Amino acid sequence: MDSGTSIFKGAALPTALAGVVALLAGLVLDGAKGAAGAAVGTAVVVVFFSISAYVVNWASKISPQTLMLAGIASYVVKVLGMMILISSFRDVTLWNTVIFGWTVVALAVVWIVAEFRITLQTRRPYIDEPTTDRERGVRAGRGS
């Protein structure tokens, strides 16, 4: 399993578990609307962060420069997408928007902390080093 996959699994599972806790808290605080807000917030965080993790993992296999560009680009797209999404959900009445917002914030923090924790535990660089001469040549741009 490459480092990107282990980081993804190490962050997605705690976030999903925290999402279940958020859903139960939303249910207790505001009934079905609270639970719906927490469920939508959980889905938003898991989808946004999963796409970002996939893009960064893909870029890590190309080059360190591509990894950096993908990391910055995915961050900018994620922030802009969240701003657009949250502003478009402002007048929604199907779920509790306050619980939705707090769920997004809390689960984003959980994802980031879990990702950081798994990165420290693996003590491996995020970029998977080439294992064969052919990979080294392709990654350095000297081959096909």
UniProtKB/TrEMBL annotation:
- Look up the domain of life of the source: Bacteria
Q: Which species does this protein come from?
A: Actinocorallia libanotica
Q: What is this protein called?
A: ATP synthase protein I
Q: What keywords is this UniProt entry annotated with?
A: Membrane, Transmembrane, Transmembrane helix
Instruction: Mark the transmembrane ranges.
Output: 7-29, 35-55, 67-86, 92-114
